[in-house]
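To fix ideas, we reproduce below a protein record of this kind.
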Amino acid sequence: MKINIKNSVLLLAAAAMTTGTISSCTDGFESTNTDPYGVETSDVPFGDYFKDAELSIYFNPDNSNWAYQLMQNLNADLYSGYFAVPTPFNGGTNNSKYSMTDGWNSLLLENTNLHVLKPVASILESTEADDLVAIAKVLRVAGVLKVVDTYGPIPYSKTMQGGLFVDYDSEEAIYKSFLEDLADASARLKNFLAENGGDDASRLSFDLMCGNSQTTWLHFCNTLRMRVAMRMVNVDPAAAKEACEAAYADGVMDDSDPDIMAKYANVKNPLLEISTNYNDCNIGASFESILKGYNDPRLAEMVLPVGWGGKGDIKDLDGNPTNSEGEIHGIRNGTDMSDKSEYNMFSIISSTTTGSIYSDAYPLPILRCAEAFFLRAEGALRGWNMGGTAESLYKQGIEVSFNKYGLDASAYDTYIAGTTTAADYVDPHDPANNIAGMNDVPVAWDAAATNEQKLQRIITQRWIANFPEGTEGWAMFRRTGYPKLFPLVKNLSGGLIAEGDFIKRLPFCDKEKNANKQGYLTGLQLLGGDDNIATNLWWDVDGSNF
């Protein structure tokens, strides 16, 4: 890890403590009259506000890759099952073993406030144009969703209003405001397209994500709306159904849409920097197990084999070569290691050429179009109007994902008929980490399966297609329990997380507690449990998904 943290203090600004719904509070974003972050907004070109928010959903506008490492890679990317660390940070006592490193866990909240909420507030203060207001609201939801799904209650509706401290909003209130914002954004974009007779690319010169197309922003908006709504399905199924059906009716992403990602000249993919130059991130054992078990041809496109970058073979505990070069091997989270050299040659995300889908020049995905089909498949499984059956939409989602990797129809046909399940995990370095495969459903659709088994198929394929977006992968796993992931080898939570169980959230960091103590106390009340890694988020309900 290469970290050069500036001594920036989070200046959270808020009004005095009040009660009421968040829908009335969010009006404050549009009527900001103070500048708690010391930025003279009148001196900033209007389009730069959009670019700041676009590039800060994954914060890496100046290639400070360590920021992404702290904001997501050393938490959600690990907990999603996609990745693992080969580095014994802090002597092996760190987030990867559920021993929280406080200094790693504050930047997501800070940077989202500064680089998403702040510029969006300035946009909404400066324009009433339907398409621009809509895009700003979509960006706000896309950025803040990551934060609320990481911590739970957060400062949100009053963050830009000025004052000495900021109240927190409950997860439920924030989620409802997300759906209101996205419904409004959808209506505004539809209105603009109807009045304008289609797209007007000349208005969107700032657009780094949707190809200067209001239509693509509309589809992104409504697919994000389905993502938000589906997260609520176990706590407010009626609202989830209503929002998903409305989003589908308004227009969601399909196979003609690009994956949504923020691409800007000279801004590199931070995950690749962390994986290659830092050598702090390798593929997770669960990811290896599931894709190997499925004989998934996407694995070779996603991942480099052992020995990448000339690092050579894996050695066993006695220092002997294991003849693993050219094979794909991931790492189990919670693995004990004394030095990076034990595991740094294990597989990483594919990154060798500029033509690779994960090259330095290729940005991280924010929302892949395949996800729209899997969201619709889950909705159809629940009996909602999603324009197809669960089976047909499930298969379409896989096909769209295969197409993104340039795989042909015969590979797809073979894959969707597959009856194998997750492979056993074998650690060539230390066999004490070996474990039997856990994700116990095949790819092939089974009409006679239970709804839980069908959902497991849908979520597992959505999880594969969404790689490497760890925040969403972690959220899917917490909500549904799927795909089934390997537990930690070593759990250092001190009993907070039972052996074999999984982390639920990040705790609020000391910096926030000290800088915003009164606000933090409101968040603690809304959390509904202790401020630790074992307290479930509002939408994370233990038990059946149906």
